[in-house]
């Protein structure tokens, strides 16, 4: 089942044609990698898909055309994007962070007034949020951090918490922009099994922009290679990284990149 289909995505910033008609599809359960040199348009593609950057083209999410939908409407329709801990409060504990993220999912019938008055529905909502938060602590093996402040954690662990918060919304598609950037090698190695777990648990599609080739090759079921706003290769990861155009445009700068990726 296709969860995301974007066609003809194009945008220019002044004279710079950042995207020049990009087509991309993502199926449920797929991990799609996006590679390309700096400035190829990878982050801009995410901005267009989420609705942050107005563009031409068409975006269909879970069979629904969201081309004219707002950022929030797309998020509600199941498009999740990681913010790489930018939205986490450093003075909150891990459990409270996950609990807060869980709270909008109140049982049917709870009202704002009920919440203010601390009525039964609100208490049920809190109990449910706590239950979900504890569940996430288990799923993400965060037991050792449950009562730690977010600000005390490493960047890599905060990224996992951010991901957990994102998953509470049960997105159909999750967009991750360089999840390995700025984190330690050991933490990068822990990302691969974690992202696979996310995919398995939610059955969602994952789209991963990543310059760490070993990481992207260990995860992706399909790759897109971008160059100056165009898809220059698409398909099985092994084929894409060996594609002459890709080698020239991206990996060619760094012959070691292919060797490192085995
Ligand atoms: N808000 C913006 N204003 C002007 N130019 C931009 C903006 N965002 C991106 N660009 C330009 O668009 C191109 C693609 O950038 P980007 O999507 O960030 O590339 P990538 O994520 O692949 O490194 C670059 O030339 C970049 O300078
Ligand atoms: Mg980028």
Write the layout of secondary structure elements.
Elements: E1 2-13, E2 16-27, E3 31-35, H1 42-50, E4 56-61, E5 64-65, H2 71-76, E6 79-81, H3 94-102, H4 112-116, H5 120-139, H6 155-167, E7 173-177, H7 185-202, E8 205-209, H8 213-219, E9 222-227, E10 230-235, H9 237-242, H10 244-249, H11 255-260
Parallel strand pairs: 3-8, 3-9, 6-7, 7-8
Antiparallel strand pairs: 1-2, 1-4, 4-5, 9-10
Helix pairs in contact: 3-5, 3-6, 6-7
The structure holds adenosine-5'-diphosphate and magnesium ion (MG).
Adenosine-5'-diphosphate is lined by residues 13, 16, 18, 36, 38-44.
Describe the structure.
- By secondary structure, this protein is α/β, with parallel strands linked by helices.
- The chain folds into two domains: 1-78 and 170-262, Rossmann fold, CATH 3.40.50; 87-169, no CATH class.
- The chain contains eleven helices and ten strands.
- Strand 7, helix 7 and strand 8 form a beta-alpha-beta unit.
- The longest helix has 20 residues, at 120-139.
- The protein is globular.
What is the CA-CA span between the terminal residues? 31 Å
Radius of gyration: 20 Å
Look up the CATH topology of the largest domain.
Rossmann fold
H/E series: EEEHEEHEHHHHEHEHEEHHH
Number of continuous helical runs: 11
Name the bound molecules.
Answer: adenosine-5'-diphosphate, magnesium ion
Which stretches of 5+ consecutive residues score pLDDT under 50? none
Supply the helix-strand structural class.
alpha/beta
Mean pLDDT: 88
Tell me what portion of residues adopts beta-strand conformation: 15-25%
Highest CATH level, the class of the largest domain? Alpha Beta
- Helix share bin: 40-55%
Outline the biggest β-sheet: 6 strands, mixed
Count structural domains.
2
The CATH architecture category of the largest domain equals: 3-Layer(aba) Sandwich
